[in-house]
Specification:
The protein has 373 residues and is an alpha/beta fold. It contains 14 helices and nine strands. The longest helix has 20 residues. Bound molecules: alpha-D-galactopyranose.
Length: 373
């Protein structure tokens, strides 16, 4: 009874305060947005796009699980579905980790983005060699690719709603279109279209993406555009382009990101931001001098302010392109741990996400939420 009256009194008091101190509805809404701790990031962006996160099976067994469920409507296995982990030997698959992520997502009504089916990295050596250690022929490689894609896509048919079918097949080098990977050396460009065909045959309802980074670089962007447009025009079953979004406090500029989104939206396919993070270190582009120049390895107020601005800029533009962008996925959960803690400078701590080491929303989180109008 005493509890009832206390609650009643508090409600009355809050109501009085609201009506006296808030002059209009708009003000009330802003305050409601900032103090409603029951809503997750995914809820704020519900009308815009799905908000996702890359996870490991381990993270689902820690206190991070609560955060993953509250804030994200989609999960991407960070490594568990890649060829190396899931298909370590020719006749051996390892599904345990991927299955545990899938089970978690299903229990919590989250979507699953599959990542990835064909990549030059984290692919086991056996894939490209025969028993005597020689490089396999094109026919053998395509047969293996088909078997791999069919098996993995089939296992998660109707569960994984979107797949990064081919990852990073474009070269970063000027004057070179395709990356000089083992896939390319053995098959030529054909492996790309084939990978999409195999995935489509296995699950005709899954959305199929080409995924790549450095999308903000005008030359790389043009190559990505040409590749995807070429596939689409040739009738290859491709549904969208994945822009990884590994960015930093110094890039992309507003104009560069706007140009990037504008260009890809012209494809008439879906765009998904698949691996978003904003490093607090200016993008180095492999320059040793710039790595050396940035000696502040703490999350300083200056870095925090720059990161907030960059996050705001990115989300404002994502919202502007909401007709084309169907999902924004963060690469890792919180600043407790990120792949950037060791890259490109070994052992250097980064703070690229919207949640801090204690899993609390950073200022950038609220600023991102407040970009919604
Ligand atoms: C690329 C890959 C991801 C991941 C990141 C770094 O962007 O697509 O799977 O490996 O690099 O962690």
């Amino acid at each position: 009874m005493k509890y009832f009256f206390t609650v009643l009194a508090s409600c009355f008091l809050i109501g009085m305060l609201n009506s006296f101190s808030l002059k209009n509805k708009a003000e009330k809404e802003i305050i409601a947005t900032t103090i409603d701790s029951t809503r997750g990031l995914k809820d704020y962006f519900k009308k815009y796009f799905t908000i996702g996160v890359a996870v490991s099976p381990r993270s689902l067994k820690t206190d991070e699980a609560v955060l993953i469920v509250k804030h994200f409507g989609s999960v991407t296995p960070e490594n568990a579905m890649k060829m190396g982990p899931i298909h370590p030997k020719e006749n051996e698959y390892y599904f345990k980790d991927a299955d545990s992520i899938v089970a978690f997502a299903k229990r919590n009504n989250q979507k699953i983005r599959g990542h990835n089916l064909c990549w030059h990295n984290q692919t086991p050596r056996w894939f490209f060699t025969n028993t005597t250690g020689d490089t396999v022929t094109k026919a053998v490689l395509l047969e293996r690719l088909k078997e791999h894609i069919t098996t993995v896509v089939n296992r998660y048919k109707g569960i994984v709603y979107a797949w990064d079918v081919v990852n990073e097949a474009i070269s970063d080098k000027q004057g070179e279109f395709y990356r000089n990977s083992a896939f390319y050396r053995i098959c030529g460009e054909e492996f790309i279209a084939k990978a999409f065909e195999y995935a489509h045959e296995a699950d005709p309802n899954a959305l199929l993406f080409y995924n790549d980074y450095n999308e903000i670089n005008p030359q790389k962007r043009e190559k990505m555009y040409q590749l995807v447009k070429g596939l689409k025009d040739a009738g290859v079953p491709i549904n969208g382009i994945g822009l990884q979004g590994h960015w930093a406090i110094n890039e992309p500029t507003d104009t560069v990101l706007a140009n990037t989104l504008e260009k890809f939206s012209k494809l008439g396919l879906k765009i998904q931001i698949t691996e978003l993070d904003i490093s607090v270190y200016p993008k180095e582009h492999n320059s040793r001098e710039r790595v050396a120049a940035d000696t502040t390895t703490t999350f300083s107020p200056e870095k925090e302010a720059q990161q907030i601005e960059m996050y705001k800029q990115c989300f404002s533009l994502f919202e502007k392109y909401k007709k084309s962008i169907s999902s924004v996925t963060f690469w890792n959960i919180s600043d407790r741990s990120s792949w950037l803690d060791n890259f490109p400078v070994r052992g250097r701590k980064d703070y690229p996400l919207l949640f801090d080491k204690n899993l609390l929303p950073k200022k950038a989180f609220w600023e991102v939420v407040n970009t919604i109008n």
